[in-house]
Amino acid sequence: MKNITINVSKKYDVFLGDGIIASCDEIIGSVISPKKIAVITDDIVDTLYAEYVERILSSNFSVKKYVIKNGEASKNIDTLTSILEFLASNDFTREDALVSVGGGVVGDITGLSASLYMRGINFIQIPTTLLAMCDASVGGKTAVNLKYGKNLMGTFWQPSAVICDTEIVKNLPVDIFNEGMAEVIKCDIIRKCGIIDAVIEDKIKDNIEAVVEKCILLKKDIIEKDEFEKSGQRKFLNVGHTVAHAIEKLSDYKISHGSAVGMGLIIEAQMSKKLGYCDNKTVEKITKAVKKSNLYFDIPYNPKDMVCAMKKDKKNDNNLISFVLPKQIGECFEIKLSPEETENLISFVI
Ligand SMILES: NC(=O)c1ccc[n+]([C@@H]2O[C@H](COP(=O)([O-])OP(=O)(O)OC[C@H]3O[C@@H](n4cnc5c(N)ncnc54)[C@H](O)[C@@H]3O)[C@@H](O)[C@H]2O)c1
Are residues 42 and 125 in the same domain? Predict the structure, then answer.
């Protein structure tokens, strides 16, 4: 098992290795001493992993479990309230802890619940998707969506530990694995590390532990410099995401985050090329990697509606829409565009 220490306002370790979910009780016991644990999961992950985690933890802790409906549509205030009410009705206190077992949706809403319940209690992330392992579980961003847009309500609340069992990603259904590839490809666009070439050459699955580790190390480096997204570096993690969040919102969250990010990366690379910042070779490489991961689709929305959805993006200021665009593989920059400029660009590229 490897440990990656995240040195932010609250220092914690990401534990990484094959089969380590079986030791989750020891790992949790080594970092916190909760009296009770609430396992939060969704109705798909419950039978796959959460029941198992519940059983293991029950030998050392008093455990309750709360199961939400799977999917992005559950990432809302109603689910958040139901988790908080569940904790209160089971007499959870600040001495206790939450453990999320699931993908990014479960992780984001569990983190937000942990940050709000009694003004904050400990939580542990056990990510079960590639996307959650490589990105969502590390860094302390928590959120739910509001009807006006994606992740509009949230906090920064770091976990006490992240337990990444890489065996889990090896057994993922192919579509869920591919959705995670969007955020993996994103890492190479932010800091060149050979991932895109490996995707194109079909070499990702053979080296998945190393890929997960590379992504976590990139995230560690960025959040240690800019934990609260103040100095600008953390914004780079949003490359592809302004377009992606608009797609997700317009689809009423039926298009998954990973699929939307895949197309967001292509469209934002094309926008960058049209603005004269990146060359055709970069656009082609990103497009190839996204297509190879089976994330390519025709955008079913018109540019006007997309811009309307982008106007609610939380990165915007002064009525300008903020984008992080690629210059080349390994280099991104932030640009703010007016809604009119954005609509013209989107009309040109889609
Ligand atoms: N907090 C952050 O920094 C951050 C970063 C990136 C993404 N996110 C958020 O993460 C979410 C997307 O995460 P996601 O792609 O994991 O989505 P998800 O949590 O909805 O999981 C996708 C689907 O996979 C199922 N699933 C989970 N684990 C499985 C397993 N091992 N085997 C089979 N099925 C499994 C889930 O039940 C769900 O139906 C979005 O809400 C996004 O905004 C957060």
Answer: yes
111 lines ligand 1 (CB under 6 A): no
Our count of domains for the chain comes to: 2
Question: In this model, does residue 314 exceed pLDDT 80?
Answer: no
CA within 13 Å, CB half, 261: 23
Tell me the C-alpha to C-alpha distance, in Å, between residue 102 and each of 21, 229, 239.
12, 25, 24
Residue 264 has pLDDT above 80, yes or no: yes
Average pLDDT, stretch 144-173? 96
CA distance 319 to 339: 8
Task: Give the pLDDT confidence of 28-53 residue by residue, as tens digits.
Answer: 999 999 999 999 999 999 999 999 99
| CATH at residue 44 | 3.40.50.1970
Question: What's the first-to-final CA gap in the chain, in angstroms?
Answer: 45
Q: Is residue 36 in some structural domain?
A: yes
Q: Is 127 touching ligand 1 by the criterion CB < 6 Å?
A: no
Ligand 1 contacts CB of residue 321 (under 6 A)? no
pTM over 0.90: yes
Pocket test for ligand 1, best of 21, 44, 164, 172 (most atoms within 8 A of CB): 44
Q: Cα dist. 121→27, 34, 98 in Å?
A: 18, 10, 8
Angle between helices 77-89 and 104-116 (to 10 degrees): 60
For residue 146, the enclosing domain spans 2-170
**Which of ligand 1's atoms lies nearest the C-alpha of 138?**
3
CB of 193 closer than 6 A to ligand 1?
no
Q: Do both 17 and 109 map to the same domain?
A: yes
341 in any annotated domain = yes
**Claim to verify: residue 262 and residue 164 sit in the same structural domain:** no
Kindly state if the Cβ of 144 falls inside 6 Å of ligand 1.
Answer: no
Domain assignment present for residue 178? The answer is no
Same domain, 279 and 131: no
Does position 315 have pLDDT exceeding 90, yes or no?
A: no
